[in-house]
Each structure stands twice: as structure tokens, then as C-alpha cells.
Amino acid sequence: MAGSAFSLGWLMAQLFDARRLRVDELFTPPFDPAVQLPLVADLDPGRRLELALADLDSLLATVASGVPAGDVHTAGISADGEPESFGLKVGVLHQAILDRLVGDDQAISAYQLGLALSDACWLATPEGGAEAFIVMFQRGQVAALKTWLASAGDAIPHGAAGIVGQSLENWQDWIEVNAKGITQAWTAGQGAEIVKALHIQAMVWHSVLVGDPQTSGSPAMSAWIQASSAVVRATLKVTVSVLRRFWWLVLLIVVVIVGVLILVVLSLHGASRVWTSLLWVGGCVGGASYGFQSSVGKAVSGVGAGLWDAARADATAWNVTWLPTLPQSGRQRRSLERAGVAVPVMRSNLEAPRFSPAARPD
Questions:
Q1: 171 and 287 in one domain?
Q2: Which of 92, 101, 165, 232 is the most buried (most CB within 10 A)?
Q3: Shortest CA distance to 220 belongs to which of 309, 316, 313?
Q4: Are residues 142 and 229 in the same domain?
């Protein structure tokens, strides 16, 4: 099944680093056992580990049948008492999975993608400093992730590679504009906000790469607006680039037309003759322009379709991109706009302090 090998790699990273099994705790509402049944995020760590191990059996049967996970199950029962032993067992299982998948390029790429993308979202911590965060989105790191996305092929859902790859670039552009501010203000509380946003982004990327139908629908209107703005900026850049390269040709055409008009006006006498000649010249120029536009239109008809496809892909990527909501100066906003990055909107009235279950109204 598309997404299974990726899910296995993602789950193995969670088993090896127990923090990643608790990602839901960051943004789930308060839990009151008196009136609520628990969600997975509300379960204690031991029970959550049991569910993860059950999921492991299912994924192994689908992706790497025949690879035993009994030792991991046994060590997982006593993981609280012997976490190092459990980590060693997970490492041995990881090697066995690699041995099993080594002959399947798409599956092993998707498996490694699950590991590496989880690392990109979890190795940075508020205590680790801004450098540990920025380095995960450097050119080489993102290039490696995009290579595994492309190599995964049918092992991940159709179109997911382009969506997640563009979303990674959105994060790159945002970091490029905010790098100085991130480095200076990381310890002033911004680090925690950035890491929290990255953990939320991890859940969204995971949903896309396992084929979650909730993330594969039509993009929201705000995503289309951002994509349309990017297309307009790209068109303007292409136009300016063409004019810079071929300004001499445009100038030559203008000079020729102006010269012909001046020659007609100076050479002919009588208003009727002048206007007839002007109309004749205008008709010739118009006909030539129409023919030129028709030829160009036919030549670039495929480009229009390509732009539409690019806009849709960009809108879909923005639909699954979750950037941190940090204060942005006017200069930063302009830089983000030039880079084609949407500034996240902070809804301050909805970000109220979390109330305790004891304060819940009857």
C-alpha cells in the first residue's frame, strides 16, 4: 500500500525516540476523564507504546513480511525500566528491515524518507539553539529529502512528493528571510513557538505521505490566493527578463514605426492622403502584430497549461504548510512577499490560555 513503507520508517523513528510518540500532547484540548473518553494523546506513555507496537506488527506484515519483531515487543513491555535495551532492540530491527528492503529501491527510499523527515522535524529543540533548527533546512538536507521523495515512486501516494517538496521549500524561504531574527530571539520564547509549529507541520506532512484523504482535497481559497500571487510575480519576472534581453529589438521596432509615420507625414500633402496612408500603415502594423501574436500564442499555449499546473501544485503545497506565527517587520514582510511566502495569520482572540478541567462549566 502506498505510504506503508514511509509509515514504517516514521514509526521506527518514534519508537527509537519516545518524545515523538507524544507529539499530540502539544495541541490537544485539556482532558477530563470524568466526562471524556481518552484520545490517543490522552493515554499514558505505556499504553501509547502498546498501540505503536501493534501498528508496527501491521506495517511489518505489509512492508517487510518475515522480519521478526518479537524482541522489540518483549523489550517494549519493560521499556520504562530498561530504555537502553529497548533502543538496542529497535536498532537491530532497523537493520533487519534494511536487509529486507534493500532490493526494492522505492520501498527503501520511502522507509528512509520516514526516518529523515521525522528527524528534520524533531532534532531541533528549544534548548538546542537556532543553529540546530536552521541546519535541518539547509540546501543539502532538503535536497536529500527531495531525492527520497522522488525515489519513493509508487511507495507514496501519487502527487505527494511534489506537495511535500514544495512545502519544504516554503519553510526554506521563510527561514532565509527570518534567519537573523530567529538566531537573536531564539531564547526569548520564539524557539518554543517555532519548534511547536514544526511539530504540527510534521503531523501534516505525515498525513500527506500516508494518503490521508483529509489532506488530499481541494486547496483552500487562501492557498489559491497565495499561488495566484506567485504566478503573477513569476509572469512579471519573465516579462522583465525578456525585455532586458531583447530591449534592442523592441526599440528597433518602435524606431521603425515612428520613422515610417514621420516619413508619411512629411512626404504627403493633403489631409485625405495623410490619413489614408496612416490607416494603411496602421493596418499593416496591426496585421503583422496579429500574426505575431497568433504565432506566439500557439507556441506558448502549452506554457499556459504548465502555469496552471504549477499554480495548482503551489496552492496544494500552501494548503499543507504550517509556518510559525512570529512578529514580522515591514521589511521582512516585503522580503517574504518577494520570495513568495505567505505570512501566517495569528488569530489572537482564539489563542486564549488553556483552561483547566476543574474550571469547565457545568
A1: no
A2: 101
A3: 316
A4: no
Q: Which three cell numbers stand for residue 141?
A: 538536507
> Cell triple for residue 131?
543553529
pTM recorded for the entire structure: 0.73
Which run of H or E residues covers position 25?
Answer: none
CA distances, 224 to each of 7, 23, 220, 288, 308 (Å): 29, 29, 7, 37, 11
Number of domains in the chain: 2
Q: Are 318 and 219 in contact (CB under 8 A)?
A: yes
Position 259 in a domain:
yes
- Contact between 52 and 24 (Cβ < 8 Å): no
- Give me the domain span that covers residue 281: 224-312
CB of 174 within 8 A of CB of 133?
no
Is residue 11 in some structural domain? yes
- Helix (H/G/I), strand (E/B), else coil: 2: coil
- What span, in angstroms and rounded, lies between the C-alpha atoms of 205 and 336? 22
Residue 175 domain-assigned (yes or no): yes
Beta carbons within 10 angstroms of residue 124's beta carbon: 23
| C-alpha dist (Å) from residue 228 to 67, 315, 342 | 48, 8, 12
Residue 7 parent element (H or E): helix 4-16
The 10s digit of each residue's pLDDT in 275-306 is 666 566 666 656 555 554 555 455 444 455 55
Same domain (yes/no): 193, 151 = yes
Helix residue ranges, H only, 219-323: 221-245, 247-267, 271-299, 301-319
Do 164 and 297 reside in the same domain of the chain? no
Same domain, residue pair 103 and 123: yes
Residue from 234, 219, 230 nearest 341 by CA: 230
- The string of pLDDT tens digits covering residues 201-251 is 999 999 999 987 666 556 655 555 666 666 666 566 666 676 677 677 777
